[in-house]
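Example (one chain per record):
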Amino acid sequence: MTKTVRIESIRFGYLAILFAGIFFLHAGSLFAQNIDFGKSYVNITKGLNGGTIEPNDTLEIRASVVVRSGAYDSMRFTDVIPAGTVYLPGTIRVLTNEGKVYKQFTDGALDDPGQIVGSNITINMGYNPTDVPATAFRRGRIRNTHKPSFFTNTCIMIASYQVQVTAGLGGTVSTGGGTITYRANPGLLTSYTFPSNTLAIYTNYGVCSNAIGVNAIGTEFNGSFGSGPTRNRGTSGNVPPGYTYRTFTTNSPNDYSYGIANNTSTQFGYTTVNTWSKPDPDPDGGGPLTTHRVFSVWDIIGDHTGAADPFLGNNPTDTVANNNGGYMLIVNAAYRIDSAFQQTISGLCPNTYYEISCWMRNICSKCGCDSNGKGASNSAG
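Predicted structure:
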């Protein structure tokens, strides 16, 4: 039996996720294009603790639309309520990049840009009142400078609705499908249909207390990414195409990029402590403007494998002393909801439970911004 493990990511500010020794940092788009899309879900019932999908769980279906440059007209999201679920009334919304409600719509037709008719969801998108806004009767325009804004130069919207699972244990629910329509100005109407994504419904047993056997991921040193005395390790075959490998510098790994390191400080601002100010534009006050922190705000940390404190992880490796330190994968990942790590696991046994666990950490608490584009470290305004 063979299963494919895919780590999917929803971006809320800058979210870092660690799978054994893996960090995913969301800030950027997977492909160098001006508009991007992604779709996934959040299990509202399981909340921050996570777990499997079970009968009666509430799922929030989310489809992201990202305009990085220019303007796009005729923006609309359509979807069909998945089989094995029922729609929860009053949940048609547009969210910000942080998951906050930006626009709330009624379920009825003809009174606002969102509606459900039968099992069909429609959300007309684009809400700038002076720039061809969406209404109940027309699709709208989204410009990269519109709100919700990501640092004033990118617009990120998430079309969403909620369902409750009615399918029984052993069944499935499809969260894929759905379509975004848009028109480049000028241009023909274009449609993008999200790929299929089928989810299994099964009992949430939680973390196994009597687990036996060894780590079976079978790649990247069984998920630890190995160790070494140098700060930057090299590329990984498990990072999907579209990301570019980068070493750690003042502004790298940048958008669409990833690194594998045992210390996340910058090349010319090397340090083994995480106590520098945020932002940290000039560490010693005497110039040149060199920062210890990537983009002046990233945390300076080590990996997680074998850490005495499972919440904090390991300290940054002292590579000057040539110490051996564990590596981790740091991905400056896509704006859109997408995969950042993939691995096919084979040789699984029938009637056997396998546990896939992850360590998640936000390594940039000062990297988010509100719907006006004001950053967390911006004290003005």
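Caption: The chain has two domains: 1-32+208-381, 52-200.
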